[in-house]
Amino acid sequence: MTHEVQLPIDAAGIRKLLPHRYPFLLVDRVVELEHNKRVLAYKNITQNEPFFTGHFPGHPIMPGVLIIEALAQAGGLLTQLSHQGDTAGRMFYMVKVENARFTKMVVPGDRLDLDVTLKRLIRNMAFYTGVASVNGEQVACADVLCAEDTN
Fold first, then answer.
1. What mean pLDDT is reported for the chain?
2. Pairing of strands 111-122, 38-44
3. Which of 11-15, 89-93, 99-103, 118-122 has the lowest mean pLDDT?
4. What whole-number distance in Å separates Cα of residue 12 and Cα of residue 27?
5. Phi/psi of residue 41, each to 5°?
6. pLDDT digits over 106-121, tens only?
7. Which pLDDT belongs to residue 2?
8. Do 49 and 61 form a contact (C-beta atoms < 8 A)?
9. Which member of 14, 15, 54, 63 has the lowest number of beta carbons within 10 Å of its beta carbon?
10. Are 128 and 144 in contact (CB under 8 A)?
11. Is 59 one of the catalytic residues?
12. What are the residues whose beta carbons fall under 8 Å from the beta carbon of 61, sequence distance 6 or more?
């Protein structure tokens, strides 16, 4: 059963779906959704991002681990939007990253597009593949496994 989702989903809507908060909420908008298959979201990278104060002064670059985290959060949005209501109150954590590649730097002023596809569901886990891009050029990619906290 698919649920009717009104796109785009803005930051307020994303905060209802994910537990992350500033400064670690790394998705600003969801613009495309194929239930149980794919999501396209983005993060606007501003010069005021807190990580830029130390990474690196005078030459700000978004840390690669945060790009991977943004891909994982987009995957979480795909799961939440595909199963709205069924995952309420459940917590999922990133437990594995494979095949991570970084090809270009992400800097202030960029819009980081997050294209995430669900590869498979395994019991209480979801395996996603994600591509991050800026202006249509890939900047990073990774496969991410997220699992539900069953404790």
1. 94
2. antiparallel
3. 89-93
4. 11
5. -135, 175
6. 999 999 999 999 999 9
7. 52
8. no
9. 54
10. yes
11. no
12. 55, 105, 106, 107
CB burial of residue 128 (10 Å; 0-12, 13-18, 19+): buried
* Phi and psi based region of residue 123 (left: phi greater than 0; alpha: psi -120 to 50; beta: remaining): left
Confidence category of residue 58, pLDDT binned at 50, 70, 90: very high
Q: What is the pTM of this model?
A: 0.95
Tell me the one-letter amino acid at 65.
Answer: V
Task: Find all residues with CB under 8 Å of 54, minimum gap 6, and list them.
Answer: none
* CA–CA distance, 109 with 105 (Å, rounded to integer): 12
